[in-house]
User: Which sequence fits this backbone?
């Protein structure tokens, strides 16, 4: 299914029912479980203790890693526990959570106030980090780290391409004026020559709101992009907007472009007004929920409370998903907390599930290659992965796979292609990290051997010097004795 901008992609039914109602406030739960790790980076350490009272907005964690991002208390309360709980992650690993029981639910973090931020990037970066800002589009990259490199192009990503997800759509409709102000601020910090906001063509109300907010301004362009999945992917959007392709193995910053999700832009504006990131917008959708909608939710709120705010379950739900139906993660229960990277909860019924469960052999139809937005050959990658041929996987560009699942969607044999690629990428990453660890161990061993050899040589040289010194001393004593004896002899003769 060819189109403009990037190769492949799919036109999917939108299912944006959640965008039909204004943003609603999700009530605070009886208990917030706030994961320490909500971003791509290191987890850090808790800086509160069980039993301690916390204020709304208080910092709960600290860390020394440059990519560390702290977490904050969304409301006033008391820390009831700091414990390991399962994380909503494909690895099913556990992570540390700070559990807070709200005691004054009305004491939440105040909205921004005060004059606009006038400082430069050096003052801005620590404020953005300390406010806990990480990418809200799903990947969770630490925003201060991304902003540390100046760029020519700033692209505000409002292309919400996955079906059902509607939080950016509602944000654009309701907060467009603030977004444009904050975009100007981010652009100034980055010293970007060009700035545009990209919105998908089917999001007509969002487009109108942004057009109105921009009025006649020409410093930020409004770019209406094709409604084709995965248009909102960073690389695909860059190609569609700038015509530049991010080379494999390189980052957008290597070609001078930054893509920032629209919710993240607002979070940066909040951070520079002294407001930490303690809430986010989450859409709740699918045939399994009573009232689909977009909710303003405190981080750490259990998904069950959010589903309840959307009217609760409607029919037997076949699958609960965090994220969209294409790239989302299937969950086994609704007790996971909302985190910074969770933009959507889906409650899918039988009719909304993609495909059947039994995979058949590949019939080499080539449909997967036609829709791959990364220009890969999924059927080949699948074969190499199943055969354990890691070198061939690397040669055929596995790293460029964005796990968009377009190939799964069209595969008539229902092969679990993207899941296989995710697994293969993780295995390769583990292998590389093992190789790096082995290389480090080898270097450490070699430098220890060299050090021991150097020390042995130094010891030998010292001993040799000492021996020479002693020998010289003995020689001198002999000479002195001889001189003395000769002097005695001469004395006797006279
Ligand atoms: S779409 Fe499926 S069946 Fe067709 S070539 Fe790709 S993997 Fe094989
Ligand atoms: S999941 Fe990977 S291989 Fe499949 S279409 Fe997307 S980018 Fe291509």
Assistant:
């Amino acid at each position: 299914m060819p189109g403009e901008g990037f190769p492949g992609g799919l036109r999917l039914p939108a299912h944006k029912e959640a965008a039909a109602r204004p943003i609603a406030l999700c009530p605070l739960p009886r208990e917030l479980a706030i994961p320490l790790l909500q971003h791509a980076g290191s987890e850090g350490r808790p800086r509160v203790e069980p039993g301690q009272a916390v204020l709304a907005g208080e910092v709960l964690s600290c860390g020394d890693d440059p990519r560390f991002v702290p977490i904050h208390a969304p409301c006033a309360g008391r820390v009831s526990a700091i414990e390991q709980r399962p994380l909503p992650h494909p690895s099913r690993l556990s992570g540390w959570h700070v559990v807070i029981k709200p005691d004054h639910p009305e004491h939440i973090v105040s909205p921004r106030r005060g004059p606009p931020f006038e400082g430069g990037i050096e003052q801005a970066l620590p404020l953005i980090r300390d406010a806990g800002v990480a990418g809200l589009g799903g990947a969770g990259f630490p925003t201060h780290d991304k902003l540390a490199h100046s760029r020519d192009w700033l692209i505000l990503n409002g292309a919400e391409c996955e079906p059902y997800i509607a939080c950016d759509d509602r944000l654009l409709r309701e907060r467009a004026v603030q977004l444009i102000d904050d975009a100007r601020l981010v652009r100034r910090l980055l010293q970007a020559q060009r700035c545009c906001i990209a919105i998908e063509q089917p999001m007509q109300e969002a487009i109108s709101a942004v057009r109105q907010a921009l009025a006649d301004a020409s410093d930020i362009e409004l770019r209406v992009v094709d409604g084709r999945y995965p248009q909102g992917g960073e690389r695909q959007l860059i190609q569609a907007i700038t015509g530049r392709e991010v080379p494999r193995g390189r980052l957008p910053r290597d070609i001078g472009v930054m893509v920032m999700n629209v919710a993240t832009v607002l979070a940066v504006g909040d951070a520079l007004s002294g407001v930490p990131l303690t809430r986010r917008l989450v859409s709740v959708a699918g045939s399994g929920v009573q009232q689909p909608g977009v909710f303003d939710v405190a981080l750490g709120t259990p998904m069950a409370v959010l589903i309840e705010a959307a009217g609760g379950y409607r029919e037997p739900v076949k699958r609960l998903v965090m994220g969209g139906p294409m790239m989302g993660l299937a969950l086994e229960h609704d007790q996971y907390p909302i985190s910074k990277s969770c933009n959507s909860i889906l409650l899918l019924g039988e009719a909304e599930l993609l495909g059947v469960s039994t995979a058949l052999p590949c019939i080499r139809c080539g449909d997967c290659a036609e829709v791959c937005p990364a220009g890969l050959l999924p059927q080949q990658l699948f074969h190499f992965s199943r055969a354990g041929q890691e070198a061939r996987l690397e040669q055929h560009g596995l790293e460029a796979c964005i796990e968009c699942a377009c190939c799964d969607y069209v595969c008539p044999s229902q092969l679990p292609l993207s899941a296989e690629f995710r697994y293969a990428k993780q295995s390769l990453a583990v292998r590389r990290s093992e190789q790096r660890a082995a290389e480090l161990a080898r270097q450490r061993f070699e430098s220890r051997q060299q050090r021991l050899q150097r020390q042995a040589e130094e010891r030998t040289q010292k001993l040799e010097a000492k021996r020479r010194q002693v020998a010289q001393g003995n020689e001198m004593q002999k000479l002195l004795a001889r001189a003395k004896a000769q002097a005695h002899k001469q004395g006797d003769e006279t």
User: Anything to note?
Assistant: The chain is about 35% helix and 20% strand.
